[in-house]
Design brief:
Blueprint (H helix, E strand, L loop, with lengths): L4 H19 L10 H4 L8 E3 L2 E3 L5 E4 L2 H4 L8 H13 L10 H13 L6 E5 L2 H16 L3 E5 L8 H6 L3 H4 L9 E4 L4 H13 L4 E6 L15 H11 L3 E5 L23 E4 L11 E5 L1 H8 L13 H16 L2 H22 L4 E7 L2 E6 L2 H13 L2 E2 L9 E4 L7 H19 L9
Parallel strand pairs: 3-13, 5-6, 5-7, 7-8, 8-9
Antiparallel strand pairs: 1-2, 2-3, 4-10, 9-10, 11-12, 12-14
Helix pairs in contact: 4-12, 5-12, 6-11, 9-10, 13-15, 14-15
The chain binds 4'-deoxy-4'-aminopyridoxal-5'-phosphate (PMP).
């Protein structure tokens, strides 16, 4: 249906305030619910690369990238083309028959994952990938405990939520799986202590689960010896090492997989988000032949009707090929260095606003003195045509996670608009009262 300008403005406004509320509960008055908006789907956001338009044709630079979904930008033509072509052939899996695309994708992933990872199981999302990884670790080790990180994020279904180290998400669903221990992220000693205690009391840790760089927590980069020490410890204590690459994977941090920064081969890797090229939902958990033997012994031990369907696999194969062929990973490392160094320069000049800039590649965290200032920066940027995440629950951090195909010119534009925003903020003294 044709939208009047008034309706369109109202819908966009609703979208934006819902978005703001999502990240800043209570900060903006919740004016209309999505349900009330009714014809919500009529709002079209179209885009290519790192730029998109709203229904009124106003242009934005995407600095959010669907939190790691749009690595190849909005609607990459080669990924869209691959899905369209597949749609003509077989959109959904014929359950009993072996689908060649699943095999092709698994083969491709085996080639590009570190270590001896050779098998993949495909699902629809990140949280399902983590659930599968947990189950595989339990089946293989015949143990049930996990060590994960405080402020780590692994999903919101009950298994992955038990790993997620954020009280605000966990609390409503308590009690969750027990036997899960959270340690400070990046603290190898704390992991070792936990493993030691577990061994002493005859406790049963199946795996250590960590993000290579913490995403949701605000692009937190661990010390350089963290991952190598995790690998060493997991071998010593005979527990599995699971790298949750749902957000860091497929080039986000300037390596194809985050763990490659430290040359570590995990036992199980999870992937999702960008795996589908920003066009189809798909996730995967992947592991070595030795570990996978517990799944191969009974093909029905883990199943998913639409996981790894032909459309999703076609998208993933195209996405990986584009990523490799177009040198996206190397460019991401360079763009990330450029972006981070300029942000650090800005943060140093606005030390009354910023506390830190963290990150690797194009997974970057801007850390603020408080949530309100972080929110004001996000909304100031939005007003200037830059879509960026807000701050949540006293996290005091805004992630900068643009499509990896963002241009240097777009990065410069973002930096300029950020400077304008910060200058404007300095003049609004009310933001600087203590929170
Ligand atoms: N693991 C990590 C590291 C994530 O960042 C996320 C999503 N932010 C998930 C798991 C869950 O993925 P999904 O939202 O697709 O379930």
């Amino acid at each position: 249906a044709e939208l009047s300008k008034h309706d369109a403005e109202w819908l966009i406004d609703t979208t934006v305030s819902n978005f703001a509320n999502y990240y800043n509960s209570g900060f903006i008055e919740y004016r209309k619910s999505v349900a009330e908006a009714g014809d919500f789907a009529a709002v079209e956001w179209t885009g290519r690369g790192a730029t998109f338009k709203d229904v009124l044709g106003r242009e934005y630079i995407d600095c959010l990238g669907g939190f790691g979904l749009f690595n190849l930008g909005w609607t990459h033509p080669k990924v869209v083309g691959a899905v369209q072509a597949q749609l003509q052939k077989s959109p959904l899996p014929t359950q009993e028959l072996l689908d060649p695309l699943r095999g092709m994708l698994a083969h491709l992933l085996a080639e590009i994952t570190p270590g001896d990872i050779q098998y993949s199981f495909f699902v629809g999302s990140g949280t399902e990938a983590v659930e599968g990884a947990m189950k595989l670790a339990k089946l293989y080790t015949r143990k049930s405990g996990f060590i994960a990180a405080v402020r780590g994020f692994h999903g919101k279904t009950t298994g992955s939520l038990a790993l997620t180290g954020k009280a605000i998400f966990r609390r409503p669903a308590l009690p969750l799986h027990n036997n899960i221990y959270h340690v400070p992220y990046g603290d190898a000693e704390a992991v070792e202590q936990q493993l030691q205690v577990a061994r002493e009391v005859g406790n049963d840790i199946a795996a250590v689960v960590m993000e290579p760089v913490q995403g949701e927590a605000g692009a937190i980069v661990p010390p350089d010896d963290f991952w190598p020490r995790l690998r060493q410890m997991c071998d010593e204590y005979e527990v599995l090492l699971i790298a949750d690459e749902v957000q860091t994977g497929i080039g986000r941090t300037g390596k194809l997989w985050g763990v490659e920064h430290w040359n570590v081969a995990p036992d199980i890797i999870t992937s999702a988000k960008a795996l589908g090229g920003g066009v189809m939902p798909i996730g995967a958990f992947m592991s070595t032949p030795k570990i996978w033997s517990v799944l191969n012994s009974n093909p029905f031990i883990h199943t998913s009707t639409t996981g790894g369907n032909p459309l999703a696999c076609a998208a993933a194969i195209a996405a990986i090929n584009v990523t490799l062929e177009e040198g996206i990973v190397e460019q991401t490392a360079e763009k990330g260095d450029y972006f981070i160094s300029h942000l650090k320069d800005i943060a140093a000049r606005y030390s009354d606003i910023y506390t830190d800039i963290t990150g690797k590649g194009l997974l970057i965290g801007q850390h603020f003195v408080n949530d309100d200032i972080g929110y004001a920066v996000a909304s100031g940027l939005f007003k200037r045509g830059v879509l960026i995440s807000g701050t949540l629950n006293n996290s005091r951090v805004i992630r900068v996670e643009p499509p990896l195909v963002i241009t240097y010119q777009e990065i410069d534009t973002i930096l300029n608009r950020l400077e304008d925003t910060l200058q404007e903020l300095r003049t609004s003294a009310s933001l600087f009262v203590a929170d």
